[in-house]
Amino acid sequence: MISYQDYLQLLPKTELHCHFVSTMNAATFLELADKHGVDLWGSDPETLFDFADLVDFLVGFRAAHDVLRDPEDFARVAWEGVRDAVAQGNLRYREYYVNPQYFAARGVGYLEVMEPIIAGLRRAERDFGVGFAIIAAINRRDDAASAVEMVRQVIAHPLPEVVGIGQDDLTPENTEDPTRFAAAYELAAAHGLKRTAHVGETDAATSDAVRQAIEVLGCERLDHGYRITDDPAVVELARERGIAFATTPVSTTICSDWALDEAHRIRAMIDAGLMVTVSTDDAMFFRTDLGREYREGLFAMGVDAATAKQIALNGITGAFCDDVRKDRLRAEFRAQFAALDAVLAPAA
Ligand SMILES: [Zn+2]
User: Which end of the chain has a smaller Cβ tally under 10 Å, C or N?
Assistant: First the structure.
C-alpha cells in the first residue's frame, strides 16, 4: 500500500506551464555559468534562489538566459529537464515557454535557440517516451512592435514543434496589461497558432486582465489566472469557453506570499468547475518539481484522489497537441490510475 502523498507524486502527469530555462537543474546552471564566465548574483546553491517576490525573481529569471549559448547547452538542458521530471513526478507530456527575445538581445537567433532545444527534447522523447510542444513567449518588458516581430519570426520559420504563442514577464511598469500585445495575437491567430497568456497572477493583477486575455486576445488557455475568482462573470465566461488554466501552486507561495491551504484561490477555481491543471512554472528557481506540486500543493489544498486524477486528465484536454496523442495519453493515464488506485491505502 502507498500513502496518499506518494499516490499524488506517482500519478501520471502532463505539464503545460514551464519556462525552458527553469527546467535546468541548479548544478547544470552553475556549471554553464562557469563555462561562459557569467557572473551570477550568488554562487551558493542554498541561497541562490531566495527571492523576495515576483519582481525580484524576474531579475534572476532574465539573467538565467545568459548561461545558454552553445547548441549543446540548449540540448543538454532540454534532455536533463525531461529526465528529472520523469523521476520526480512521472511526467508524460510537456509544453515549454521559450522567449526568443531574451536570446535575440544576446545575439542568439530564433533557430539557434529552437533547433537545439527541439533536438534535445526529441532525444528525451526517444529515451523517456515524453512528447512535447513549444510555445514562443512574448516578453512583456519589450514593446508591442517587438512582439509582432517575434511572431513574424515564428511564422517565417515554421517548425511543427512550435505550436503557439504566449506572453510572460511584466511590462516595464510591472503590470500585466495583456492587450498591449493584441496585434501580435491577431497575427498569430491568422496563422493558426494557439494562444495563451500569463494573467491574473498576483495581488497586483486583476480579473479584468483574465477577461481581456479571453475576449480580446482569443486565448484558449491561460497561465495562472487566480484573480478570476474576484469576478463570477469571468468565471462563467471561462467555463463556457472551456478555457484551461495552467496553475502553479508552489510559485504562489513565493510570488504572492499565499498559503497553500483549502482557502487558496486554486482550490476555489477547482470548486468553481474551471478546467484547472497543475505545473511548476519555474522549478529550479522555486525549488519545486512536478511531483511536489501534486504531493504538497494539491495535498495542502485538500484535493481528493478523484479530483487529482481529473486535474491530471485536464492536463491532456488543455494541451496544444493533436487528438491522436491526447487519446493515447488518456489511455495510458487511465491504466496507471487503475494500478495506483489498487495500492492506495484507505484514508485513516
Ligand atoms: Zn510562467
Answer: C
